[in-house]
Amino acid sequence: MIHEAHQLLHARRSMDGANIEIDELVTVSRHRDSDIIFETQQSQRLDRNSVTAVDAIIFREPALMQADFERKQLRPIVKEAEKTFEQYTETIEENGYTFRRKSDEVKKHAYIHSGRFIGEYPYEIGLADHWSEDISKAYSEVLEQQTADTGLNEDDQTALDAVAAWETDERPLKFEHKGANHKQVPLQHAWNQLQALHAEGLLKITYSSSNKPNEYRVTEEGWEESNIDEPDAPELAEEARKD
């Protein structure tokens, strides 16, 4: 059981030693008849390798904006979970305002998406016998420091989406070195954002020169962070792959 797994397996630290060790453990766990459970309130921050290896996803009530900021592959599942939990929320229209009141029942249920079962878990979930409010909040101050937002700032997101948009329009590419440069990014000092995104592993440099702009394309991790879906067209044209 890995509690608050995004702290150990953060998507922005996919090449850290801890991430790699856990990834190797996951690959051999089935051979040893072992189950590994990742528990997190920040699923969008989990390392991609950990997410793709799961056999089942269990949701408690999703947070208000979780579906909007979740990985695009998980968004449909989160939305299904939201529909399930709607039955435990009462909506009241009064004096031009909308109030939403949650039943205590919402804490007793879960939504499951797996290869063998999809839907609301058919039994109520109780608290552990040893649970108390003091235990629940024992590490709250530490967690607040460790789970500080590490998402992209507005300029970085703009730059990443601009490269993704360029690549979407240009695919399949005729040359392996072809990529977008700062001229395709609507920011005053766009090369700063491009370099920062490359350092974080969200862009890869496909062409580098001392007298011409560097050119970039989006990595797998970059597509996950981008607001633009990766196109279905292959990255390179057939003649480029042969060369």
Percent strand:
5-15%
**Rg of Cα set:** 22 Å
Q: What order do the helices and strands follow?
A: HHEHHEEEEHHHHEEHH
Assembly form of the protein: single chain
Can you give the helix content as a percent range?
25-40%
Question: How would you describe this protein?
Answer:
It is a single chain. Helix 7 (154-170) packs across helix 8 (190-199). This protein has two domains: 5-146, no CATH class; 154-242, Arc Repressor Mutant, subunit A, CATH 1.10.10. The protein contains ten helices and seven strands. The termini are far apart. The radius of gyration is 22 Å and the shape is globular. Mean pLDDT is 84; it is low at 142-150. The chain has a three-stranded antiparallel beta sheet with strand order 1-4-5, covered by helices on one side. A two-stranded antiparallel ribbon has the order 2-3. Strands 6-7 form a two-stranded antiparallel ribbon. The relative contact order is 0.10. It is 34% helix and 13% strand. It has 243 residues and is of the alpha+beta class.
Features:
243 residues, alpha+beta, Arc Repressor Mutant, subunit A, 2 domains, 10 helices
SSE arrangement:
Blueprint: H1 17-29, H2 48-52, E1 56-59, H3 66-69, H4 75-85, E2 89-94, E3 97-102, E4 111-114, E5 118-120, H5 133-136, H6 140-146, H7 154-170, H8 190-199, E6 203-207, E7 215-218, H9 220-225, H10 238-242
Antiparallel strand pairs: 1-4, 2-3, 4-5, 6-7
